[in-house]
Amino acid sequence: MKVLFPRLIKWVALVEQKLQKRLADEIRTVIKAKGGVTLFALNKMVLTKLVVYEYLRINPPVPFQYSEPKVDFVVQSHDATFEIKKGKMLFGFNRLQIKIPREDRDKLLKYVHWSNERETEDSTTENKACARKDSVVLLCRVLLVDLFLHFETFEVEAGTIMFAPSVMFKTLAKASSIT
Questions:
Q1: Residue 103's pLDDT is what?
Q2: What distance in Å separates the CA atoms of residue 135 and residue 140, rounded to the nearest whole number?
Q3: What's the pLDDT at 114?
Q4: Are 38 and 56 contacting, i.e. CB atoms less than 8 angstroms apart?
Q5: Residue 58: which residues within 8 A CB-CB, separation 6 or more?
Q6: Cα–Cα distance between 48 and 145 in angstroms, integer?
Q7: 3-state secondary structure of 46
Q8: Which residue has the higher pLDDT, 121 or 22?
Q9: Which residues of 25-61 are buried (b: 16+ CB within 10 A; e: fewer)?
Q10: Which 3 state secondary structure label does DSSP give 161?
Q11: Coil, helix or strand for 124?
């Protein structure tokens, strides 16, 4: 979280303030309609969820993955076919692996592999899915909800301290109304 949260705040700060205002509006509207910050309310925040998934696509907490296939299989792209043999070491760079076209995001979520497994798969003892993947997405959404409940827009100064990202808020525009 020491890496994930500062990067998320930086990433949201770098988008245009129009998007920040849309996030703030969505969050406040849903919370007012649903009577508070609940899981049900969080699941109604479509834009907030999309922002978190887009952030995780562009800046996955673990950008590189290594794996050893359990069976032979074939990988095809638009212009090539690759045979992968059981037991060979594979390397994956997640930023390339999980690019999702703007349309069909919900349909294609099953192809997102940011957590060592498909996003739609639960972690089990049989796969390498991150047991905390749902917590990561949820906590990122909660962070944005808390931030935009109190502030309309913000700007940050981003840097690095001891190989970890750091953010310092330069401006914080208070929310005109807090629910």
A1: 57
A2: 8
A3: 62
A4: no
A5: 11, 95
A6: 8
A7: helix
A8: 22
A9: ebbbebbeeeeebeeebbebbeebbebbbebbbebbb
A10: strand
A11: coil
DSSP for residue 111: G
Lowest mean pLDDT among 6-10, 26-30, 66-70, 103-107: 103-107
Are residues 62 and 14 in contact, defined by beta-carbon separation less than 8 angstroms? no
pLDDT, one tens digit per residue, over 58-108 is 787 777 777 788 899 898 877 789 898 998 988 877 665 555 555 565 666
H or E element: which one contains 174?
strand 164-174
- Residues in the chain, overall count: 179
3-class SS letters over 3-41: CHHHHHHHHHHHCCHHHHHHHHHHHHHHHHHHCCCCHHH
Per DSSP, which regions of 35-87 are E strands? 64-67, 73-76, 81-84
Instruction: Pick 167 or 162 by higher pLDDT.
Output: 167
pLDDT at 29 over 90: yes
Decide if 143 contacts 5 (C-beta within 8 A). Answer: yes
pLDDT at position 139: 95
Strands 81-84 and 90-93 come out as unpaired
